[in-house]
Target: NADH:flavin oxidoreductase/NADH oxidase family protein
Amino acid sequence: MSVELSTPLTLPSGVTLANRIAKSALSEALADRAQAPTAELIRLYRRWADSGAGLLITGNVMVDRRALGEPGNVAIEDDRHLDLLGQWAEAATARGAQAWVQLNHPGRQAPRGLNREAVAPSEITVTGAPGVFGKPRALSSAEIKGIIRRFATAARVVVDAGFTGVQIHAAHGYLISQFLSPLTNRRTDEWGGSAENRRRFLLEIVAAVRAEFGPRIPIGVKLNSADFQRGGMTEDESTEVVLALAKKGIDLLEISGGNYESTAFMGASGEGVKASTRAREAYFLDYAERARKAIADSGAELPLMVTGGFRSRLGMAEAVAGDAVDIVGLGRPLIMEPDLPRRLLAGEAGAMLVHPRRLRIKHLEGMGELMWFGVQLRRIGQGKEPDPTRHPLRNLPHYLHTTGLIGRPARRGFTG
Ligand SMILES: Cc1cc2nc3c(=O)[nH]c(=O)nc-3n(C[C@H](O)[C@H](O)[C@H](O)COP(=O)(O)O)c2cc1C
Model:
């Protein structure tokens, strides 16, 4: 049977996704000062519930309120916001989509203006963003075990609230990715040194989350195909991580790449990105083919999702019809056109047509783009339409303020 975008997919846990399009995680930055969901966040998911995507993955939710990645992150440490989380889950699942919460810890990518301190596997500061991130403190082994428990607790709370699964964020240079990378993990205890030790943190989180709610709730992992940095995690090592995850038995592996120092996930510009990868619509398809082959050779089963760059129905349809990809992930297109999957599936749209206004200042482009999309997310949360004509520089002063680069740090996200 040839696989089409509308073909359902049953995951190893037995849960069925209605189609092959997923919304990938997009940090909404719409929590209140207590890091709880707001009415804006809930309204945004009411809109996406209707997007047509079979799977909605939330923006990253932090497992420790003392460790925020952006202003306005939701953070979950216990049941205290169960009611609001329940309303969020209800909105996201209202039209029958699977809704998974992405769980994250920023590690060293915790802006100074938002956090009293940053923690990491080793004391190595993020480069290329002077003033934003401080030197992190190396975690003790007891603290590492505490963070593993935090992932399990947050997973239990979101499933109690009505979300249908979780995704563990092991990509983009956040804490788990910092453990995986030899560039940021210089430990010599059981959490570092060898590649096997570096992946222990991720595998123990997966095991702790699985133990919390058994085999019937899907667990996804988002992983870098590579860090696209000299000395960072390579594709070879990433493939070893994939095989270890396949053996552990997760439901869906989402492939991405890069971090704050090399933002390959926003476009195939990172160091070492192959020309063949650049030539394809999605950035990480070559790697997905390689991972798929390694998984098949090992005899394991692990559905793959690839995110980054998909814009046309043809590009997406070819990806799922081929051997490597089960699910295509869409990020920015779901901000510009929140109902794009439904129209793609119905044959009413051939591609994303609304494009953001560019800043065209090389140094600020990556940061400017994230801010710009953040503002659009808030607009949708306020019941408005996205505004593709908005000038990116209008967001800059607020960004500098919220990250603590100028003035007093603010706890709220970017205002629209
Ligand atoms: C505003 C914004 C916020 C994002 N937040 C997250 C996040 O919380 N977690 C994550 O894993 N990826 C995040 N991403 C990355 C997206 O999930 C996705 O990997 C990336 O946008 C590439 O896919 P696209 O080309 O379809 O946009 C974010 C991207 C954007 C633009």
